[in-house]
Specification:
six-stranded parallel beta sheet; binds N-[ethoxy(oxo)acetyl]-beta-D-glucopyranosylamine; Rossmann fold; 32 helices; 15% strand; single chain; alpha/beta
Length: 809
């Protein structure tokens, strides 16, 4: 969009004054930020409106991405950037004596997700808008985001993240689009005068779903999509039935907290309420649109694609059936055909403990009508499957099993497409986790390897690299990431390599300053910055990283002149509050950091930094400064990973097991430009099947392992209670579920290879360049194009400006 600095300055002064009734010169940082955010939102409002009108006018097919989690990160900078206004805004503020960077740091980072799944949803929203595709997000406006993590004595402590305490300038509450969601009560079917079976309800708990819309701004294409987050409120007409604050609690609590668990499932009633609340409101608002424009219901699959982001929104299947049958009066067969063609499902984990299974009794009581429909879906499924595939497959794939509703089974049965998020992960779904379904419906299965948006993770997070790329290969890569491969041509250019190394060093200096500021630790910017940033989980093996650091420390103590390249090990990770083992790992890493960072024998050779409260904004600071990307999950366990992609795009070299998307990263960048170690996925499967693994043997016979493990419990690491013992026990007594000890030697070897290579700065930077140049396939734009072509069948849509007739209202 076009805007002069002069106009911006005028607009900004007016905006500030109209909000606060005094001059911006007297404003606090928060006020200055709020005024700027609202002004940028004003600029967005026209393309936002026009986009919506264009979709309606052209009746384009729209995607609704249903997700319990979104992690958009701060939006001021990215919105201004995508609109093409960032430079103007920065200049204007400078003229007013204000700093854009300072103002943008005042924005609270909405933590409405746990980790990879939520961040992927936000990368997808960015790509959908940037590709001019009609893509809407549907989720929950949690009053509290993921907990704020603090370390006290090295222990994780969880504090509430009251992100809405200050106003959220990006959202618009949309009172005219509320929906009613019903829970509990009695439900029965009654034949009415026209002969229809009608669902009758009594004594239900009625909850008003209020939508809050947030613009999702496309990159320089005047396209703005919608992220709709629902908040639970008391229906106005029922306000008089509530007499005390306590009585209103059961309603308000529905959208109060985000469950701070990824990769784990707990059958909590409130969580089921959240899932149905979000699903029902989302589906109702879609169908309302069809009623309004009088679109024949059978055309729904041509006009709408509903995506089920992991099983959390899988109730979409029975909810859509309910509305089509009970409200739209379609037959079961018609409703099923529409539902099945409309829905698609992505699985994000193979961890058994993450697969949702709701007790039937709970489902029946909370969602009686929905449960009736699930029963019927299951009955028909069994009826059709049994004669063709026999007992074993039928009962193993049924939705209702042993007193529970299996949500993954419902999602697969109710969707025309089922995908994993990296090739290996999809293979594992087909051959293991969902193998019986693969036999029933091979045509539904497909792979969609994850991707990330370069706009946030390179253009904005790493302006130095972005400028270098612009200078060396032109600006086309920004719209068309495949152009990045042209950068390979510079691999031998000394000048380019020097510039690239200088940019990395600058980024590292900036991070080093930040480390000193927030952690009080002085680190050497010329050291290798080695980064592991992701949720804390045993399968991700932060404790393998920990054991290696401990090993290095002990080596240095034994031989102070050992030839290690200086290294800073950087961690960012939250542990689920109930996940004791993960919290113990955090504590041990923090205590080890304490020991290592203060030992004069160690000096620059080793520093350990564990950031508090890892999230999107912190990732934006860390990633551009990384040299080494730790992707060390046990092969077969990490569905894809996405920090691997962000780090690669910023020139970090990957240290990886052949797991998730690491395999594809290796394939694109070439085996010489990545450090691979450890068991492969087939080897892991084999070793598990053979049941011959004996971790104690490794402890007893491998001197490095022996020494490091002993140091966990002999007082070497200060200030531990039993945390070191707990890790020791899990590895030695409980036979090391994630084969940490098995992979230890090859991990240590790979780490030494990293040291050797780093000594040859030219060669290191050349490999770094090749990583950047090979990162295009991991652009979310490509991922989204594949979803759009293969699953959703949606196309890019040019937005019409001016003179578009508003059809809605
Ligand atoms: C994550 C996976 O662990 C990660 O490998 C993947 O890159 C990411 O999804 C995006 O696909 N899963 C979750 O965050 C999660 O909560 C449990 O999964 C449902």
């Amino acid at each position: 969009m076009e805007l002069t600095t002069k106009d911006f300055i005028k607009d900004y002064k007016n905006q500030f004054q109209s909000m606060y009734a005094y001059s911006y010169e007297e404003g606090s940082t928060e006020q200055l930020y709020n005024a700027l955010g609202l002004l940028v939102k004003n600029y967005i409002s026209t393309p936002w409106k026009e986009t919506r009108e264009t979709y309606i006018k052209n009746s384009v097919k729209q995607v609704f991405y249903f997700s319990m989690e979104f992690l958009p990160g701060r939006q001021l900078k990215s919105n201004a950037y995508n609109l093409g206004l960032l430079d103007t805004v920065k200049e204007g503020l400078t003229e007013l004596g204000l700093s854009f960077d300072e103002l943008s740091e005042a924005e609270v980072d909405p933590a409405l997700g746990n980790g990879g799944l939520g961040r992927l949803a936000s990368c997808f929203m960015d790509s959908l808008a940037s590709l001019s595709m009609a893509g809407n997000g549907n989720g929950i406006r949690y009053q509290y985001g993921l907990f704020r993590q603090k370390f006290v004595d090295g222990y994780q402590v969880e504090l509430p993240e009251n992100w809405l305490r200050y106003r959220n300038v990006w959202e618009t509450s949309n009172d005219k689009s509320t929906c009613m969601v019903r829970f509990g009560g009695n439900v029965w079917l009654e034949r009415n005068k026209q002969g229809y079976l009608e669902a009758k309800y009594e004594n239900t708990l009625n909850v008003l779903a209020v939508p809050y819309d947030t613009p999702m701004v496309g990159y320089r294409n005047d396209k703005v999509n919608n992220l709709r987050l629902w908040s639970a409120e008391i229906p106005v007409e029922e306000e008089n039935n509530y007499h005390t604050i306590e009585e209103t609690e059961p309603i308000k609590e529905i959208t109060q907290v985000l469950y701070p668990d990824d990769s784990n499932y707990e059958g909590r009633l409130l969580r089921l309420k959240q899932e149905y609340f979000m699903v029902s409101a989302g589906v109702q608002s879609i169908i309302r649109h069809f009623r309004k424009y009088n679109v024949p219901r059978k055309n729904i699959p041509d006009k709408v694609a509903i995506h089920i982001n992991d099983t959390h929104p899988a109730l979409v299947v029975p909810e859509l059936m309910r509305i089509l049958i009970d409200e739209e009066r379609l037959s079961w067969e018609q409703a099923w055909e529409i539902t099945f063609k409309t829905c698609s499902y992505t699985n994000h984990t193979i961890l058994r403990e993450a697969l949702e299974k709701w007790p039937i009794d709970m489902m029946k009581e909370l969602l009686p009508r929905i449960y009736m429909i699930i029963e019927e879906i299951n009955r028909r499924f069994v009826e059709n499957t049994l004669p063709l595939y026999g007992e074993r497959i039928t009962w193993q794939t049924a939705i209702l099993q042993n007193g529970v509703v299996n949500m993954a089974h419902m999602a697969v049965i109710g969707s025309h497409s089922v995908n994993g998020v990296a090739q290996l992960h999809t293979d594992i779904l087909m051959n293991d986790v969902l193998k019986d379904f693969f036999e029933l419906y091979p045509e539904r299965f497909n792979n969609k390897t994850n991707g990330i948006t370069q706009r946030r993770w390179v253009h904005l997070a790493n302006p130095g690299l972005t400028q270098l790329l612009d200078d060396k290969i032109g600006e086309d890569w920004k719209k068309n990431p495949s152009e990045l491969k042209v950068f390979k041509g510079q691999e031998k250019d000394k000048q380019t390599l020097k510039q690239l190394a200088a940019i990395k060093l600058e980024n590292k200096k900036r991070l080093a300053d930040h480390i000193e500021k927030v952690k009080g630790i002085k680190v050497n910017p010329n050291a290798i910055f080695d980064v592991q940033i992701k949720r804390l989980h045993a399968y991700k093996r932060q404790h393998l990283n920990l054991l290696h650091i401990l090993h290095r420390y002990l080596e240095i103590k034994q031989n102070p002149s050992v030839d290690y390249a200086p290294r800073v090990f950087i961690f960012g990770a939250k542990a689920a509050p109930s996940y004791l083992y993960a919290k113990q790992i955090i504590k041990v890493i923090n205590s080890l950091a304490e020991l290592v960072n203060n030992d004069p024998d160690v000096g620059d050779k080793l520093k350990v930094v564990f950031f508090e409260n890892y999230g999107v904004s912190l990732a934006e600071k860390i990633i551009p400064a990384a040299d080494v990307s730790e992707q060390i999950s046990l092969a077969s366990m990490e569905a894809s990973g996405t920090s691997n992609m962000k780090l690669m795009a910023n020139g970090a070299l990957t240290l990886a097991t052949l797991d998730g998307a690491n395999i594809e990263i290796r394939d694109f960048v070439g085996g010489d430009n990545i450090f691979v170690f450890g068991l492969t996925s087939p080897e892991v499967y084999e070793l598990k099947a053979a049941q011959t693994y004996n971790a104690r043997d490794l402890y007893e016979n491998n001197s490095n392992i022996h020494r490091a493990l002993n140091a966990l419990k002999d007082g070497t690491i200060p200030n531990l209670q039993d945390e070191g013992h707990a890790i020791f026990e899990s590895l030695v007594h409980f036979n090391d579920e994630y084969f940490v000890l098995k992979d230890f030697d090859s991990y240590v070897q790979a780490q030494e290879d990293i040291d050797s290579l780093y000594k040859d700065q030219n060669e290191w930077t050349r490999k770094s360049l090749l990583n950047i140049a090979s990162s295009a396939p991991f652009s979310a734009d490509y991922t989204i194009k594949k979803y759009a072509d293969d699953i959703w069948k949606v196309k890019s849509c040019a937005v019409e400006h001016e003179g578009v007739q508003p059809l809605d209202e």
